[in-house]
């Protein structure tokens, strides 16, 4: 396939106190998030001066990628500047015809895949008929370099523990409504949780096959009466402590960099929970600009540009594809 641009597509985050509320409005418009939850999340951003770490992390990723890509690079977010629509307009003005998009989430679900594709479609529509065609790069939840990047971080975190032999690995990902999980994948097969279980198993096997591990969830939102994936990481730490576990490594395999959810919900909240329980707690790093992760992106681009569809680096058995079927992760839209 002849691509003439690379587009990084991400979530976006506020870059100052005055950005916090308009950003949260963009994220939660029509989504029924309770006011108390929004207040709390606004407080997390305010705690860091109203600055989300995510935009700086994307800038750093683009700088790390630049020497590895032969294509012009663009960047657009769903929820904050630089917006996707502006990036698509710039591409159009620069004469780009067919861009390849890397979305900063490895997994399927309405929130982590379909929503990004819908937003790309909306941005193209806004720009008009001469907007470039934009293809999304496939899921990479079991790419050997995604797995190895997290596994190396788990090994490094284990090194910091007094007695790594009795440690428990606790893998975390962003919780989503159970109905959204059930509807993820073609025809609704619970693909989000299935992919995360596969990532967790692969990272555990690569990092410390002798240790027990669990997959749990973090950063639940939404109204309390709507069921989301459980258990929450904090509840799980209590259960582990009650069962006699003394040391944990928490590895956020659902995140590619240290988003606000990682630095607040894990480094503040979960760490506090662990401290109250007397658990030794180490948080494993996310890929960020790890050279393995950067190389993975290069490989995913090559996979599409060279159209060597028989060369798909993948360690697991949950299938991935270049173009999502029309019925993938569509319904229910939002709960
Ligand atoms: C699966 C998933 C990912 C991982 C995949 C991906 O990366 O896309 C993710 C990432 C992120 N989520 C983020 C921020 C927020 N997510 C929210 C709300 C929600 N997230 C959801 C799911 C996910 N979210 C859902 C189902 C909701 C409910 C509303 C809805 O149905 O859409 C809210 C509203 C307040 C609240 O938390 O209630 C905020 C502020 C940021 C930026 C962080 C930063 O600034 O560093 C990032 C990377
Ligand atoms: Fe989110």
Automatic annotation (TrEMBL):
- Enzyme Commission number(s): 4.99.1.9
Q: In which pathway does it act?
A: Porphyrin-containing compound metabolism; protoheme biosynthesis
Key word Transport present: no
Q: Which reaction does it catalyse?
A: Fe-coproporphyrin III + 2 H(+) = coproporphyrin III + Fe(2+)
InterPro entries linked: Ferrochelatase, Ferrochelatase_C, Ferrochelatase_N
Its family?
Answer: Belongs to the ferrochelatase family.
Protein name (Swiss-Prot/TrEMBL): Coproporphyrin III ferrochelatase
Q: Gene symbol?
A: cpfC
């Amino acid at each position: 396939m002849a691509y003439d641009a690379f587009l990084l597509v991400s979530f976006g985050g506020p870059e100052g106190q005055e950005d916090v509320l308009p950003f949260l409005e963009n994220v939660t418009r029509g989504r029924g998030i309770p006011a108390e939850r929004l207040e709390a999340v606004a407080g997390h951003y305010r705690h860091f001066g109203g600055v989300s770490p995510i935009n700086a992390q994307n800038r750093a990723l683009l700088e790390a990628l630049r020497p590895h890509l032969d294509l012009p690079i663009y960047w657009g977010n769903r929820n904050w500047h630089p917006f996707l629509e502006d990036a698509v307009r710039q591409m159009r003005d620069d004469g780009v015809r067919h861009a390849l998009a890397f979305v900063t989430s490895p997994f399927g679900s309405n929130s982590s895949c379909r929503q990004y594709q819908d937003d790309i479609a909306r941005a193209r529509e806004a720009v008009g008929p001469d907007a470039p065609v934009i293809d999304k790069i496939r899921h990479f939840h079991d790419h050997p370099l995604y797995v190895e990047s997290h596994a190396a971080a788990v090994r490094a975190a284990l090194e910091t523990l007094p007695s790594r032999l009795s440690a428990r690995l606790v893998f975390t990902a962003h919780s989503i409504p159970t109905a959204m999980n059930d509807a993820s994948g073609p025809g609704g097969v619970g693909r989000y949780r299935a992919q995360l279980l596969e990532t967790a198993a692969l990272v555990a096997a690569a990092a410390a096959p002798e240790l027990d591990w669990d997959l749990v969830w973090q950063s639940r939102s939404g109204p309390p009466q709507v069921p989301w994936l459980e258990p929450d990481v904090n509840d799980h730490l209590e259960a582990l402590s009650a069962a006699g576990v003394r040391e944990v490594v928490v590895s956020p395999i659902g995140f590619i960099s240290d988003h606000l959810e990682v630095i607040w919900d894990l480094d503040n909240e979960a760490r506090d929970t662990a401290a109250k329980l007397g658990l030794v707690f180490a948080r494993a790093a996310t890929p960020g600009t790890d050279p393995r992760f950067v190389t993975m992106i290069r490989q995913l681009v090559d996979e599409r540009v060279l159209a060597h569809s028989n060369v798909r680096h993948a360690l697991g058995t949950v299938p991935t594809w270049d173009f999502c079927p029309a019925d993938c992760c569509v319904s229910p839209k939002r709960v």
